[in-house]
Fold these 2 entries.
Entry 1:
Amino acid sequence: MADAAAVSHGHGTGTGLSNNKLLMWTFLGSECLLFGGLISTYLIYRSRFGDGPAPGDIFDIPFTSVSSFVLLMSSLTMVLSLSALQRGDIRNNRIWLLTTALLGALFIGGQVYEFTTFLREGLGYTTSPFSSAFFTLTGFHGVHVSLGIVMLMSLLISSFRGTLTKERSETVEIVGLYWHFVDVVWIFIFTVIYLVPSPTS
Amino acid sequence: MIPKSQFVPRGRRSGRFAALVLGGLAVLTGCASDAPLDTLEPQGPIAQTIDELSDPVFLVAGIVFVIIFGATAVIWWKFRDDHSTDEFPDQVHGHFRAEIGWTIGPTVLMALIAVFTLLTHFDINSEDREDIVVSVGGERTSWDPEVVVVGQQWWWEFRYYFDGLDDVDLSDPKHLPPADIVTANQLVIPTGSEIGLQVTSRDVIHSFWIPALNGKRDAVPYRVSPWKIEAVTPGVYFGQCTEFCGLSHSRMRMQTVAMEPVDFQAWIDEQVQPASDPAGAAAQRGQVVFEGQCTRCHVVNGINDDAGADLVANAAPNLTHFMSRTTYAGGIFDLYEADGSLSRPQLEAWLRNAPAEKPAYAEGRRGMPAMGLSESQIDDVVAYLTTLGSSPSMEVIAATEVDR
Amino acid sequence: MSETTANPIGVYTRPKGNTGWRDWITTVDHKKIGILYGATAMLFFLIGGLEALLIRLQLATPDGTVLGADTYNRVYTMHGVTMVFMVIMPLAAAFANYLLPLQIGARDVAFPRLNALSYWVFLFGGLFLNMAWILGDAPDGGWFAYAPNTGTIFSPGKGMDFYALGLQIMGIASLISAMNLIVTVLNMRAPGMTLFKMPVFTWMILVVQFLLLFAVPVITVALFLLMFDRNFGANFFNPEMGADPLLWQHLFWIFGHPEVYILILPSFGIISEVIPTFSRKPIFGYPFMVFSGIAIGFMGWGVWAHHMFVSGIGPISIAAFSVSTMFIAVPTGVKILNWLATMWGGKIRFNTPMLFASGVVSMFTIGGLSGVTHSLAPADTQQTDTYYIVAHFHYVIFGGALLGIFAGFYFWWPKAFGHLLNEKLGKWNFWLMLVGFNMTFGPMHILGLQGMSRRIDTYSPGFGFEFWNMFATIGAFIIGLGVLAFLLNVWVSARAARHAPPVGPDPWDARSPEWFTPNPTPVHNFDDDIQIEALDEFWHRKYGQDENGRLVRVATAEEVCQDGSATDTHLPSPSYWPIVLAAGLPFIGFGLMYSLWFCVPGGALVLMAIYGWVFEPTDDPDGPHGHGHHDDHDDDGAADEAAAEDAEEAPVG
Amino acid sequence: MSTDTAEHVDTHDEAHDHPSDRKYVQVAIILAIVTALEVGTYWMESVPGEVLIPVLMLMMVYKFFYVAAWFMHLKFDSPMFTKFFVAGLILATIVYGIMLTAFEFWHKG
Ligand code: HEA
Ligand code: HEA
Ligand code: CUA
Ligand SMILES: [Cu+2]
């Protein structure tokens, strides 16, 4: 009877929206406050680099631009994979899922490279409030991307086991929401942290 | 003795009244004169300004409370179910106008209070200082009266720079530039002048508070916060560190000693003198011990300079004029007995094993360690310490007494 | 309408899954979870109360020697942390879990397993934090843990690590349950129940969940930064390296102020149910009640720096925050006056729930008014960090939140356990608590204004503090007697109920939809969907108007109530994985503190649980774990991912 | 509401108003162009900060909402989702904005 109720009273009562999707959106709303806090911390500390390297000295804008671009494009491939699945095109769905994961991995690779370069140039995690805030913010973002990759790989596995079907495209959509969110956070970070001129020592 | 209070605050009764209503216990308040930290007994114009804001608000709060509570009591009584009828009460669902009324009413009331709050707020945060002419080492200077207040675990340091603070770099509280006067736990000010304070800390956050003279201001490490203080009548005004600062937070007190300007000048004259070599064999032996053991932390002008102590805070009380203070160790011990003689057993106990007298993490380089002195060494060091500075007036000594 | 009934898989067989401890640890039933929350929180309440009694013993006389400075600092810190995070919040969660689905006419919450997860995470977080006592290093930095006193230099022990990690873990619990309940309220309401037909309690809980949703991440950030400072040498709060200690204060209080409304609003919700019922009138001004709750929720975000009036932020900031704080009195005042107006003209029965609710109205007002006196920044420079503040917040928290929760206990006890609590003991409970409470905290106003600082382990004679401190200590023990009366009541009533007839469906002549179910609530909640036409639907089915427009009873409660006889309702199946997942978190915590090796079993547990969770067959907990016929069943798959992500990300970072 | 029926209805609806892959690619191209413009400012050293920063912010906000609108489907999905997201965003912006103000961030830069 519940089924009947759900359908027939759909508009009067619930929102008619999927629980899962709503859950993901509430979560993303919450994440805004998390990243907001980290970004603000960074902004407050970006000029407090002590004797260590300053952000303006050390950022490699061309390099980061490339990896930002990579992440941006992964959003495209993500949405393409969803749209493929919604059409029932399992093959393309898999291809785009994999591409997305690879692009994400490429981004993470770029971040690892960036971090090691910074380390070599004398910017350790404990060097200054600036360095701590920088690594924490971008590290948090990196962890989010990495978790996204894990989710994408799980989807792929699930797809190969035959359980990721057109009917379940919502799962892909929800992972996609997460993925795009991580992307827009980076859009923010890239502009505000990298492109806006930073203090130099 | 120094009169405790001639400064008669206005509007006090209402505040007390409301406080009592809030406490719900109207009868039994203690007499305030034995409460040296009382916030409702302002002794200076700044505290007075605050009091004049809060008293009426206490009153308003008291009235609101009486109204609400009265109404509640009436309702409870009048509308209790006395089983006299089976009638159902009217099923009233609301009354829009009434509700709008009691939305707007409090809004207006709060807006009114807000106006006065802002006026007072900007008043007590404004600077209204006038230069004071003092003579320092025989030279007359015009001093913009500001004192640097430095908190550290668990005592206060006060630094006087008679050339003004414009050229003094306060950005690193652990390495402050040498000052004309450095003292501890008792802030000495002249009466009748607004004294600026620059409050900072060397380790964790503390809070500087002399309730009779002004509200509090946190001492935040590596931040310098302006504050001010003013006393009208000479006296000793008590204070307590009010931001939790670790183990001995409760034992971190301070006092403000307000003096007539002439007395203040005399105080300056004494304080700017460096220590001279003591007379007397015991004191001389004591000095040797002191130089061997104590100067690694403590400064005595004329013996060692502001070198920085072997402590997390990088500082221990400057002892050059130790005897000119009436209290020590964060203002928790009296240095003198009521008759003006040295309170020797307590001081000896302190030198024997300071952490036993006042909890500290001495092994963590916070607070004064047990120095492991022999009893005769302690006697000698006490003899030496008594040569450092001259004792204050009996008035000040008497006014310091709290517990007796 | 729960998602399981939407994916019909398996029939819940009552006897099998419904008895014994196995059932309690695997349950996903919101009612059981509610009870678990409540019982756990009451246990922590005894611990927190014991700590309070120790505080009072130490302060009873000047130069007290009961605890010593070091222990005292740990005791009061743990008292604050315990009471806030492990007592009031979970008690509110207990009511929210138990009642919210019932009040909206739902079969369960939207994500039953996530619900179980949030309880277990809370429990393990709380145990983890209290483990600090056993391991000899309870946190000692005060509940708001101001930096840099909480850094490794000034707090070298493990205490503050317990604090940071423990709160972090409990934050995960709050966040999960906030998301879950928001979705539940939005999506699972009974047919006809529009948002503005929801009971006020549900509304207040909804507002609280939004506050949690947005406030928890802020303290999460703060705790992460603290943890990185302490464990990995970061420089967020190390002023010597150029950091600013005020950053911590901002982050903490951006969370902390919404937090105090998180503490109070559930209680406001509870008494908004109790007062109408016992006044026999509808709530006065329902829309105002709802909107003022929302307004409090909003305004609560703009006032945090009133905790920082003396910290040295600029005068302009102080002025702005001072004024914004004052206006919070407005929506709160609307509530108080609307409760009074609800009682006005009513026929008030002073049963125990109503006594407690009336206590809230008057006692909270005292606390609120002292709050207003703090909001005047200049006045607060005298008040802050004195016992005047301690008086304020105990009046709002104890006099507001806790008394309200006790009102809820007495009111809904029959709903959960099928019998009433004893009225006589209930009155003892109430009066002892009320008198003791006023004796304890009333004098603190005076002490504070006389200049007694808070967080001092001792005071000297001569400051005028002696009398009232002794008085307050006596009061605290009277509160203790009140608490004992409650415990006694629980026991006595349960025993008495064995021989007494059942309470029947409607002991209070209640109003809201949770009373459509029989007492105690059957596992499946509702036999049938209820069709909601109005606020107070339950009441409206019992009463109508006769030809003269007079109110008359048209139906008995038995006629209106469902009889709980439905047997074929599809229910979510129990699961092991929530508890397993949660059990992994403390290990990860220990790993970060002692040796990263502990993280291995912790992480393994978490991973195993996530895997198990995702691939769990949903019909029978004891059945074979093969792949069933409902492969497509993954109703909270995304939720799992979100949760898993939190769970992993939070402690590992 | 994840009944099979509801889901079915959902997908059905989506098929109607979801943009085509072509549209997605177009969106991506626009995003790429804006990014290129943004990065381009890096070499414009002569532009003063007062001009540069607002322009950068504008482009960032544009990208941000463009992704949210198209890739996250907020443009055609239920406004409820937008509300959650925007609520978080606005709250974060205001609250942290005030916090930065308290740190005098805007003066000191
Ligand atoms: C349940 C929790 C709770 C609640 C609801 C409140 C409610 C309020 N609080 Fe309180 N507060 C705390 C818990 C709470 N507080 C805690 C725990 C602390 C200390 C933290 C710590 O330092 O450890 C604290 C500290 C605190 C401070 C900081 C004090 C300091 O440390 O210096 C301030 C300052 O403004 C403040 C203000 C207020 C105000 C204005 C309200 C308002 O919401 C109150 C509004 C209610 C009323 C005003 C009463 C009813 C209204 C009427 C009857 C209408 C008519 C009234 C008027 C027109 C005035 N609170
Ligand atoms: C959130 C809710 C809450 C509650 C309910 C309470 C309840 C009580 N609190 Fe509160 N308290 C806080 C929150 C709360 N507190 C906070 C946040 C702080 C600030 C901490 C800080 O500064 O960091 C604080 C601080 C605080 C202080 C100040 C400490 C200081 O600054 O130095 C004091 C002092 O008296 C105090 C006393 C009490 C008392 C007597 C009770 C009583 O009401 C307690 C009543 C309960 C009992 C009496 C328990 C009864 C149990 C039994 C009788 C059974 C015996 C036990 C067993 C069988 C195991 N508390
Ligand atoms: Cu210093 Cu408290
Ligand atoms: Cu607050």
Entry 2:
Amino acid sequence: MSPLTQAAGGKASSAPIMGRDAEPTIFELSQPGRSSFQFRTTGIQAWTAEEMFDARFLADSKVPLAEVSERDLVAHVTRLSHRQFSVDLGAYPLGSCTMKYNPKICDTIAGLPGLAGVHPGAPAFLTQGWLEIMVTLEKALCEITGMEAATLQPAAGAAGELTGLLLMRAYHEANGDIRRRIIIPDSAHGTNPASVTLGGYEVTTVPSDDRGCVDLAALKAVLGPDVAGIMLTNPNTLGLFEEDIAEIAAAVHDVGGLLYYDGANLNAIMGVVRPGDMGFDIVHMNLHKTFATPHGGGGPGAGPVAVSSRLVEFLPGPRATEVDEGVFDWVMPPRSIGRVHGWHGNSLVLARALAYIEIHGGDGLRRVSERAVLNANWIRRRLSSVFDVAFDRPCMHEVVLSLASLRKEHGVKAIDIAKRLMEEGFHAPTVYFPLIVDEALMIEPTETESVQTLEALAQAFEVALDDAINNKEAVLAAPRTTPVGRVDEARAARQLVQTFDAR
Amino acid sequence: MSPLTQAAGGKASSAPIMGRDAEPTIFELSQPGRSSFQFRTTGIQAWTAEEMFDARFLADSKVPLAEVSERDLVAHVTRLSHRQFSVDLGAYPLGSCTMKYNPKICDTIAGLPGLAGVHPGAPAFLTQGWLEIMVTLEKALCEITGMEAATLQPAAGAAGELTGLLLMRAYHEANGDIRRRIIIPDSAHGTNPASVTLGGYEVTTVPSDDRGCVDLAALKAVLGPDVAGIMLTNPNTLGLFEEDIAEIAAAVHDVGGLLYYDGANLNAIMGVVRPGDMGFDIVHMNLHKTFATPHGGGGPGAGPVAVSSRLVEFLPGPRATEVDEGVFDWVMPPRSIGRVHGWHGNSLVLARALAYIEIHGGDGLRRVSERAVLNANWIRRRLSSVFDVAFDRPCMHEVVLSLASLRKEHGVKAIDIAKRLMEEGFHAPTVYFPLIVDEALMIEPTETESVQTLEALAQAFEVALDDAINNKEAVLAAPRTTPVGRVDEARAARQLVQTFDAR
Amino acid sequence: MADYLPHTEAELASMLGFLGLSSTAELFDAVPTALQLSRGLDMADGLPEPDTSVRFNELASKNLGSSDRLLCFAGSGAYDHELPPVVRALASRSEFVTAYTPYQPEVAQGVLQAIFEFQTMIARISGLPVANASLYDGATALVEAVNLGVASSGSSRVVLSSGVHPHWRQVVETFAQGTGHEIEVVGLKDGLTDWSAIEGTCGVIVVAQPNYLGGLEDLDAVRALCDQTGALMVVAADPVASGVLKSPGAYGADVMVGEGQGFGTALSFGGPYLGLFACTTKEIRRLPGRIVGETVDVEGRRAYVTTLRTREQDIRREKATSNVCTNQTLMAVAASIQLGWLGTEGFRELALACARGTRYLANQLSSSTTAKLLHPNMSTFRELAIRTNAPASLVIERMAAKGFLAGIAASSLTRGSDPSLDDADLNHVLLASVTERRTAAEIDAYILALEEAAA
Amino acid sequence: MADYLPHTEAELASMLGFLGLSSTAELFDAVPTALQLSRGLDMADGLPEPDTSVRFNELASKNLGSSDRLLCFAGSGAYDHELPPVVRALASRSEFVTAYTPYQPEVAQGVLQAIFEFQTMIARISGLPVANASLYDGATALVEAVNLGVASSGSSRVVLSSGVHPHWRQVVETFAQGTGHEIEVVGLKDGLTDWSAIEGTCGVIVVAQPNYLGGLEDLDAVRALCDQTGALMVVAADPVASGVLKSPGAYGADVMVGEGQGFGTALSFGGPYLGLFACTTKEIRRLPGRIVGETVDVEGRRAYVTTLRTREQDIRREKATSNVCTNQTLMAVAASIQLGWLGTEGFRELALACARGTRYLANQLSSSTTAKLLHPNMSTFRELAIRTNAPASLVIERMAAKGFLAGIAASSLTRGSDPSLDDADLNHVLLASVTERRTAAEIDAYILALEEAAA
Ligand SMILES: Cc1ncc(COP(=O)(O)O)c(C=O)c1O
Ligand SMILES: Cc1ncc(COP(=O)(O)O)c(C=O)c1O
């Protein structure tokens, strides 16, 4: 049986529990003739492909997928899962990502057959529950942000940004106003400038001042009648509140521009201050950060966009609307920019968000923000004696360290510290963002971590720093206890292997 | 904040993915004042304990359980799960335990609100679905075993054994027949003799012959009118079919004894040969081995007992019965030994078993047994050139190796090889059972493992053997890649710490 | 052909060839032909998974009494408690579900530590220092307690309060047919055990707290009786009661057994449930079933392992303390998670909420003309025995039509006369219970419906 | 007070103390007082989890159209496919669900390898060598394809078949307001795209296979047209069709986009779904979104990592190929599991089963007097356009009362006139579809009900 000696079998040594081997791909576990699938017995005649289709349409051969038993499928995927860190395994202090613990009840709700089993094309009279969820969520999001109405269609933050920019465009065009620039601070998230381009605008970058906030003078210098608007995150990506926001708003409004609020950092301010009250006209929210959607290894999310009254008529549609007491229907806003999603948005994410909001209530949401900010400040203070804090003053929900001096003095970089932290049982913080901080390490503890966990994290930082100074090789070799060690990223890009067939 | 430096925090270093630290107990993660629970808002007056109970009944203080956030609870338990091997992670060739892959659909079925949400005390007219499941399962089990009727109450194999022995007793007593001995072969599972004692009988052990089967002459020598019966596993715990079973049955019946079939090894013979046809009077089945109940880290199981017609009237009860076409009710057998379970048995395990049986159908069940036997013989043959097979002839669903010569020549024991195998990605086989084989290693691959996995297992055995001969220290130090290394079992027994409070 | 077998045709042929066989049938050559089944099993063809789903959904829909269709007021040892999504999600992790008994501790620390935490929690709840890793259910745990008690005391005289759940009593009696223990059942008086007739040496005295009518027994008196008769004191306790009431250990019980279903296990039509067992240190070597202990590994790291194995059947065989092998570990793991979720405060709140709900029900009942408390002055915990004008089984039928599982007819548990009730009454006794999941509005609706249904 | 916050009162005080603060309010001192909300949020009080469960169960029960209540014959890009328990169990493992984007590959091999396997499977299905790690949904994937095509061809003239799903067309048109692409929609003739008017240079030509009426387009002709006009050929494909029909790649498509919901994701009221995107190697540096590549770690073990990151917004900012950041990885993981479960044979059987069911429906329909195929002679795949005597929306209403979700009213997708249908017809066009989950008996019942409902 010699070919067997080469074939992949069901060893568990690729899972961390027993070893550190690579896990074979499902294609290597595949054996011709094996299968897992089972379909319903339909009693329908088994016409052949040739009987049903013109020869010219027919595929020459079957699409080769894997051929595995259900048992091997389960073992393979379960082993893969054991090679993956997650919030459920421990703290995940990734700055800007809000990797909080999300209640499991939201998973249960998203799995209800009466929600998950609803076809999106079913008419409104068959989907009143869904429309009620949407209308209720929209109302809650508007209250939280201080806005008038919202679209729930955008599937993520970036989609919300682009939607918001198209709303700006529609608004200005309706006023017969042709504008071409959008102002963005240099600390902005990369999706902001990318969205601006897709929205058909040019980016004008304003620098941050030495307090880490928008440089007001520089902003005023670039304002003009061709400015469509400004995109801001507040608190910004340094975790700092833009204290001059009222003045910024006035200045932008003065030139006829609109203010766009990137709500990725909403977790810091719920119940404390509202974008609408700060003067913003358009707000997108990352429901997957603030409101209970576990991030899924990269998604899904939802990026609803809320607007002030003058923009409501342009919102994407159709929108779920309460047309009569307790009766819901789809209504198209009169001057809608159109549809931005194939159906109604990431509905199950929306349901999760509403459940999260309702469990907490207004006070609970404020408490979430308070504790998020408390935790961030606690870790800032705790670490400030050993690390340089980029802008060392009270922060909101996250804090940015700069490891520039460590690199200069010891040749150890932010990424090295990040990798070394993993050996201590923590996911790495965000590295090298925001771009304006040299050797940035950005920590967002979130509100669901306990002070004991924060202390353990701080101690892990201290261990890593100690190693950086006294045992540099260990830091450069880190992580050594993870399923794989440092990965050759350069080779991945140079010798691209993007599929199993490209090997 | 110095006390914090000692407190356990949410580090993931105890999960294999990042490290090898011990996981703190939930009591160490606990902080006074923290909580997870949420109850319904009932609107019922919040009477105090004192208002509701006489002071003499009241507890002096609260029961101290853990005080953790939901987030820490989730992380703690998820990390624990990462310190646990399971079938879903890889092959688990534990002899006698039938650690096959069990279809996930059975979990879904066991979770249906219409099954899992039924109160066991609800009357029959409200639980017709459950009674139908029970009646249908009983019928299927009787067909598989060749028996007349069955009780589904026993919660596991051992409970089934004891039930069967009480049935024997009731039968003999009904015949005015006082008998005191039960015969058991020396290869029997420990539950057999233990059950005999609890059944009020004495154990008479018969030796195995040099073919690994019951020594017929020795058996005949101990038979007599005081023998209530014999308990046999067939195939026996060596994985060998008792070929003389017809003669054994005749001999036992001749002295008025009954034959009890320990059905733990039923996985080997479904659709091939039936205990009833072999002459057995009483059969227990381990549904958790043969029929789709994942073992749960030690249970739950279900151990229905099927009997031939002359024993039906003694069965435990009440029994689910089809009293009219499509109408089900509980009926008490006329001379029932009584109830052996608090309610109706491990119902959800029964539902899983029925689903498994119906998915497979009769042919599918036979195929299960064929492949189980094929896999066992393949691994026997594959390993027979490098290891001593205890009784080297065609086996049924499992095979026993003897490592006696390895121990003699190299001082490496069965347990050492077992531990070394884990480093190669496999759970250890059963060690030191059956007791009649010196340095026994018992392998049951089950039918759900592929030949590639069997080959990988064989190679792992070869690696372990090679190490045993050439790198003995490595074997004695194994396993070194697991969440903990070899555990000090002697200390556990000597310095008993059975609770966190006993530390 | 629906199955989970990996063997392809080519592999089958090659594997058989490797064994020198030409057909699968030859694999069974050791089985005498005369014994082999000459036909296929008489069963329907295999049903693909999706069809099986449809079928079991249909079967489930025939259970009109499931708690998602009828509001549950039935208790009697099986309770409709909150099963929070977080506990379900954690307890169903496949590492726990698809593991075997933790015989190889190096790769079983997850289950072992979960059991260790479970043992700690159950010990604390029981007020006793030792708890095992679970038994099948409360009833069979009681059998084990009786066996332990007889072995410990040396007397096989077992006195059983008839306040013990009738099913549990029946199970004890069944197994006594094998062990030969003499079981003496004592009756109740005004809802509580009347011990007055017990004299002389006893091996074991078993009392339920609360008893199955909800009554709180005088456990100090039972302790005294045990001291006097030389018996071990076994308390069949509702573990939830410890959230507010004195634990068995606080009364000096030697053994506590109980049903742990309420901690993280669904109603499940009666199983799999969770047998709780706790005892004094003195009895530890007679403890039935598995026990996990803390120790260290070769590197000195804390580790867990099953210990005192020399009590168990696989080692001690006919001299083992019990025949239990497979137990209900998964339910024990779920219980440790549920108890972690409840925590100190939640556990107390749970007990209080059950007590409050029951009290509210009792209060509202006082105005009923058709249904009355059987023992209005008795101190109770979360169970109520109600005397209905109509037979209880009829009341249940009528209440089902109104959307309620009204409770359990006492007669359905006892199936015959019962020393805890005088016979005339039996058919008119409804046992009802309220958990933390019932609201005042639901109870009000129940009372309203009952007024009519009990007439 | 229901929340998930660990802070005890004592810890709160101590943490504030550590910061030199005396109240939580002071944490927000950086926020100008005038801007701070001087009241609480205007919302109901927090609702404990069990109440929230009750509430959402009620909301769910208001969705009369869910597939557990009405037999689903609706398709149009969202399909009622089998969601096997095994796939659900695996895809919901919390390691996948609660991970972030795999930025630290050493602890993200699980997600990375799953994506790598997904990319391989989608590439094979599309017949193209490159696939990304997912986009939001089919519609937005098409937007990305159009953007890529314009960038690659240098021409912003985009020709869109009106056989493309109306919603997708609408989304393309919305986003073109920003990019300024000129979108030209071409009509259908007898159910298939009529390209005859297209001349001159084009940037992108988009065709749907099958189109939203189910019709199979002549993709060879489209390829020729692209060659002639210089356009990139973008096929908006039903990926299930590749199980039996030629893939977009086989026709020489440059880009395939599709909706991947059918692979392991529930109907979900339209989201989260799964945007599929595959292209030629030539376009790889214009590929939107994330891509995972194989490499090695320091010890030479095979490892995976996100690669070619210089296309992405966090690095390229305003020059990025797309603004996508968060995508739909969890659905991609589910798809890779579902496709692993289907396997080579199952994938083919799936396509055949859908085709057979649709054909059976079409055959049975031939005897109907009230409902007829719109294009009876057109070759179709799993979608059928049916002309009903009564308005389609009324038919759907009547069919719902009989237990069916009969399909989608074409007018509800187009919301206005549509170049793919002449206006007179629009309100009488019902779009129906059959998956592998529908039996002959169900289809027979549907036909019977439709005869009356369509009258
Ligand atoms: C500040 C900021 N803005 C925008 C985004 C984009 O959101 P999404 O990833 O949902 O597209 C993110 C998310 O990473 C962010 O952190
Ligand atoms: C041969 C044999 N008999 C009996 C038993 C006892 O079954 P259970 O563990 O279900 O009590 C077992 C299980 O280990 C066994 O292998």
